[in-house]
């Protein structure tokens, strides 16, 4: 028997599966099929689009589509599947058993500020409301299946290592990052946020045994993927707390990181509840010290701040108040703000701000601005600030309440964030910072855009023409609002062209032409250019790995 999995990509509060990320869903689904000795082929939805494979799957026994976006996002590595595309795939491939799984079964929308619409059941044999791997584990050998059943970690321990094999079929293999599953559900016991789908999708909070997690990481590393993110957790810092009366589990984290680093070239994380940081300050600082000791620089702990408006926080059952959020940001900066040899901060907070929530007023936008200005004034670093409009899904309080949308104010706030993010990026990635192994993903004219493998990697525009998926090191020279500009590193003035030289701030086209005409250059001080240009050129050549003012 043969099955094909179409990865339509997922993005949820506690999981990301848009390339270069690969979600546990597709790996577990493959593992369940492999367990029953069913051959599996794997395609991303982008491969289907690019190669026009819409009616290429009739010779399979199973056609499985996995997808679902329950938080709004903008993606560089791929575009999540649409309902139209799901219907197209199922209608053009009549022969296989057609199975749909992932959070898309809870509803579909790709745009913030919109309520989700239900999936059309036509052309689908099984819409799996539970966990897709549980259905695929039971159905091939038994009629005793339940489309609402959830997996437990005993099942995951059987199938997860087997599913690692599917990664070799990913079009970007081995330059992908495996989203690792540490826990499911939310550990909060005082209710859930009004908008969050994690309790709907994953149910009651439970934690994966550390030994099983490490076995899967080894299996993934053995197939050639060495990049990992501890992203499949609503609050990563609470991992192991069930074994420690709800408190941070310092010995478990020490074992997790000291073992995981044996398999990893990139080791990053994602979600952290700032309220948990405040509640357990001293223990959390010890956890952060462990992370910073072993992780890869550029790491982020994403905070669900959602709003600095206390009224909005209360009405939406968000777990953190504004002053506590600021304190949590300080704590992560204190421990994680150190930089590696390339000038990249080891671990910084990220902030999620959500609009369209219950109790929001026009003043909410001004309150958020005031708190953001405090962060800037205190010289605190925030790696990224996601500003989004909430998606409303059936089963959430937000879907029931349907609050008023302030679209005009939201647009103005987004404009404000352009200048704010520009200033913050200059602090996080000063001129001279080195980015190793940037993978080119898009070429626009004379600029090649790429990202590193990691958690929310910064979009980097490198002056020059490279090949798609080519890797290069880069040195930062300038900053936008959501991206940075860089030159190939190490910077070689005698091989630099006019486009590269004129991209350096303060060096225009005329100065760049003078430099080119002066080649070969052996002494910067003898160049007939102004002193500011000389200092910048000297800095890039001699001090590329040292962070200092130019």
UniProtKB/TrEMBL annotation:
GO BP field: DNA repair
Q: Which residues form the Radical SAM core domain?
A: 172-423
Q: Which InterPro entries match?
A: Elp3/MiaA/NifB-like_rSAM, HhH_motif, Hlx-hairpin-Hlx_DNA-bd_motif, rSAM, rSAM_horseshoe, rSAM_sf
A molecular function annotated in GO for this UniProt entry is: iron-sulfur cluster binding
Q: Which residues form a coiled coil?
A: none
Alphabetical list of CDD domains matching this protein: Radical_SAM (cd01335)
This protein's UniProt keywords: DNA damage, DNA repair
What is this protein identified as? Putative Fe-S oxidoreductase
Organism, as annotated: Marinitoga piezophila (strain DSM 14283 / JCM 11233 / KA3)
Superkingdom is Bacteria
């Amino acid at each position: 028997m043969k099955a094909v999995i179409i990865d339509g990509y997922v993005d949820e509060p506690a999981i990301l599966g848009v390339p270069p990320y690969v979600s546990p869903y597709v790996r577990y689904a493959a593992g369940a099929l492999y367990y029953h000795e069913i051959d599996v082929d794997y395609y991303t939805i982008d491969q289907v689009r690019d190669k026009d494979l819409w009616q290429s799957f009739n010779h399979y026994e199973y056609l499985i589509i996995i997808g679902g976006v329950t938080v709004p996002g903008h993606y560089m590595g791929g575009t999540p599947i649409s309902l139209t595309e799901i219907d197209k795939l199922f209608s053009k491939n009549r022969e296989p058993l057609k199975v749909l799984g992932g959070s898309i079964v809870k509803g579909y929308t790709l745009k913030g500020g919109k309520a989700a619409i239900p999936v059309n059941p036509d052309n689908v044999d099984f819409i799996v409301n539970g966990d897709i791997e549980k259905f695929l584990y039971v159905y091939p050998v038994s009629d005793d299946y339940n489309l609402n059943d959830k997996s437990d970690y005993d099942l995951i321990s059987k199938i997860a290592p087997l599913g690692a094999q599917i990664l070799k079929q990913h079009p970007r293999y081995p330059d992908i990052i495996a989203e690792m599953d540490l826990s499911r559900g939310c550990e909060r016991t005082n209710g859930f946020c009004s908008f969050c789908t994690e309790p709907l999708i994953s149910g009651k909070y439970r934690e994966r045994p550390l030994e099983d997690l490490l076995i899967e990481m080894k299996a993934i590393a053995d197939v050639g993927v060495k990049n990992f993110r501890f992203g499949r957790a609503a609050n990563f810092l609470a991992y192991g707390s069930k074994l420690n009366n709800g408190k941070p589990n310092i010995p478990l984290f020490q074992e997790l990181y000291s073992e995981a680093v044996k398999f990893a070239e990139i080791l990053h994380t994602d979600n952290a509840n700032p309220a948990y940081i405040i509640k357990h300050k001293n223990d959390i600082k010890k956890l952060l010290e462990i992370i910073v000791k072993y992780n890869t620089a550029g790491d982020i702990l994403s905070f669900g701040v959602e709003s600095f408006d206390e009224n909005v926080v209360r009405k939406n059952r968000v777990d953190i108040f504004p002053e506590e959020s600021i304190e949590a940001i300080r704590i992560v900066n204190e421990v994680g703000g150190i930089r590696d040899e390339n000038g990249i901060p080891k671990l910084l907070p990220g902030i999620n701000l959500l609009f369209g929530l219950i109790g929001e007023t026009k003043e909410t936008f001004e309150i958020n601005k005031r708190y953001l200005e405090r962060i800037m004034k205190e010289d605190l670093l925030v790696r990224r600030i996601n500003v989004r409009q909430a998606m409303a899904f059936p089963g959430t309080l937000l879907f029931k309440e349907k609050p008023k949308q302030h679209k005009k104010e939201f647009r103005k706030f987004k404009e404000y964030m352009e200048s704010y993010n520009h200033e913050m990026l200059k602090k996080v990635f000063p001129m001279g910072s080195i980015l190793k192994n940037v993978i080119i993903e898009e070429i626009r004219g004379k600029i090649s855009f790429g990202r590193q493998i990691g958690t929310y990697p910064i979009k980097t525009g490198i002056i020059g023409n490279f090949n798609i998926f080519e890797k290069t090191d880069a040195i930062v020279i300038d900053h936008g609002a959501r991206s940075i500009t860089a030159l190939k590193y190490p910077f070689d003035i005698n091989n630099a062209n006019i486009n590269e030289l004129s991209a350096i701030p303060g060096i225009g086209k005329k100065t760049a032409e003078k430099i080119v005409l002066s080649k070969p250059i052996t002494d910067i001080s003898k160049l007939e250019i102004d002193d500011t240009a000389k200092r910048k050129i000297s800095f890039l050549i001699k001090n590329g790995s040292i962070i200092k003012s130019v």
